[in-house]
Specification:
Helix content is about 70%, strand content about 0%. It is mainly alpha-helical. It has one domain: Orthogonal Bundle (Farnesyl Diphosphate Synthase), CATH 1.10.600. Strands 1-2 form a two-stranded antiparallel ribbon. The two termini are about 25 Å apart. One of its GO terms (biological process) is terpenoid biosynthetic process. It comes from Salinarimonas soli.
């Protein structure tokens, strides 16, 4: 195993993650304020409240953290990387709101609170997800995120591809099919990896790539960071599958054991619980190796990978 994989998390890492989460929360609060923005006519109160319910007050904000730290590794700091990360987070929050809908996973609990369709209603939840998604692209396209229009266009293009047909939305379609909604489907290991790379991994990987884009990474640095992001996405999902089997609803803040109950194919099913844990360690090893060319300056990103595999919720 890669020597770095066994290194424990530093005591400073949770503080660093928490500090960035607080900055992200403050930015999301501003983006979801009551005052209409230039070009808007009005912000309907119920829709805004539902959007705030779905986006504020919870979550580790790992995706903005990855964007900010990837940009910082390349010497780019300030509000731009945080805004790019917030754009990815808004897209992620939209996906959770829609994923929880009765037509999808039909969940009642998210981050320890009622899901948006339970706290409000199904129609409001659909609109809240729609509006969070469009706000994500608005943030990416705003000159406040980056003064260079070409950089903003690349951020928008990358987010669209990670979120759409060949990324998250396509992965969700594969996930619904894997539940047997459209006839019996028995995914093999390769099929499960493809599904997970699209549904979960694409947005996580793009969070890292967004930092590389706004940090003006050269081709080699961008390729290394993308490899790190893809490895992290795969490790994140297998860790999630393990938690679904081993953790509790109280610890997760969402229903535990639902994937198994729904008959979803996971790598835990294909490899067994212990085999899945070994695979998580292998993926962590490969993810850390992708950062070898950066030296000690990438230690925070290494710790983010270790945290992703070792987390308990």
């Amino acid at each position: 195993m890669h020597a770095q994989a066994a290194s424990p998390l530093s005591t400073a890492f949770p503080d660093r993650l928490g500090a960035l989460a607080a900055r992200t929360e403050a930015l999301l609060e501003r983006l979801l304020s009551q005052a209409p923005q230039p070009g808007e006519i009005a912000r309907p109160a119920r829709l805004l409240e539902a959007m705030r319910h779905g986006a504020l007050g919870g979550g580790k904000r790992l995706r903005p953290f990855l964007a900010v730290e990837a940009a910082r590794l390349l010497g780019q700091e300030g509000d731009g990387p945080l805004r790019a990360g917030a754009g990815v987070e808004l897209l992620h929050c939209y996906s959770l709101v829609h994923d929880d809908l009765p037509a999808m996973d039909d969940d009642d609990l998210r981050r320890g609170r009622p899901t948006v369709h339970k706290a409000y209603d199904e129609a409001t939840a659909i609109l809240a997800g729609d509006a969070l998604q469009t706000l994500a692209f608005e943030v990416m396209a705003d000159p406040e995120t980056d003064p260079d229009g070409a950089v903003r266009a690349e951020l928008v293009l990358g987010l669209a591809r990670a979120a759409g047909l060949g990324g998250m939305a396509g992965g969700q379609m594969l996930d619904l099919a894997a539940e047997g909604r459209y006839g019996r489907v028995d995914l093999d290991e390769a099929g499960i990896r493809t599904l997970q790379a699209m549904k979960t991994g694409a947005i996580l990987a793009f969070a890292v790539e967004a930092g590389a884009i706004i940090g003006r990474a050269d081709a080699a640095a961008r390729a290394a960071l993308l490899a790190y992001g893809r490895g992290l996405g795969a490790a994140f999902q297998i860790a999630d599958d393990i938690l679904d089997r081993e953790s509790t609803t109280e610890a997760l803040g969402k229903a535990a054991g639902k994937d198994a109950a729904a008959g979803k194919g996971t790598l835990v099913d294909r490899l067994g619980l212990e085999g899945a844990k070994r695979e998580a360690a292998r993926l962590l090893d490969a993810t850390l190796a992708a950062l070898d060319g950066f030296g000690p300056e990438a230690e925070t990103l290494r710790e983010a990978a270790r945290f992703t595999v070792a987390r308990s919720s």
